[in-house]
């Protein structure tokens, strides 16, 4: 008889919940992700960082369960293995200013138990080269620009080619060229594992993500491909010289015309929808 192997998903969340006092930051999220780059979109305070911190095992849920790479982070033995196979870039990484870029990355490598000294040195050099900081490896963190510091933290997250890479607004502070580099770096990582990132930039999602999850008030409002998110707004967008009062939302565009979102009025021709339009609709559906 053929043995049926069902591979563990990279991320499996069931009724995942996290509260801070009276605030429910993550409110019973069910989600299964496996492979590729997944973009997490949502307004300020939606719960993205809280969710990512739980995926990175730095925060434990109050209720519900999560399995990451088939492992249970609540179990100390499984958590250790998981942390070796996980990379995390926090939202505002606190870096020791007096360390050099190399010392900082090496320190994280030690914490991740890369015990072989020579291999650790090679790995640190590799990840610093990957983020384009090979020539600044001996610069002190405090002497680096904001974007370079972000790249040092990214290098630390890439140590050991993680199977699950969790990135909180990774493009913050990067210039356009560095953003392009980041995209190819993450696309490459996603060929071997799963990348989950938060962003406020729908263009980033369109360029990089195979899947997108829209979160508001701690709940998932949409999960699907970027094309499906855009599709939500297809036939629900139109332009006009002044804001149309029939729209649920209107805003002025760069050319001075108004873009309207809502039920298309009779006799009005729809405009092609964008990912932003789909995002606005997904966010509003939760209100
Ligand atoms: N450590 C904490 N203590 C108390 N409240 C918190 C804490 N962390 C988050 N919160 C609250 O939980 C909610 C979700 O916050 P979170 O940082 O996860 O949102 P976010 O989607 O990442 O926001 P942003 O886009 O602004 O980064 C917010 O209401 C926030 O104030």
Automatic annotation (TrEMBL):
Taxonomic classification: Bacteria, Bacillati, Actinomycetota, Actinomycetes, Propionibacteriales
Matches recorded under Gene3D superfamilies: P-loop containing nucleotide triphosphate hydrolases
Protein name per UniProt: ABC transporter ATP-binding protein
Keywords, sorted A to Z: ATP-binding, Nucleotide-binding, Transport
InterPro entries associated with the record: AAA+_ATPase, ABC_transporter-like_ATP-bd, ABC_transporter-like_CS, P-loop_NTPase
Family from the record: Belongs to the ABC transporter superfamily.
GO molecular function: ATP binding
Domain ABC transporter: 11-242
Domain of life: Bacteria
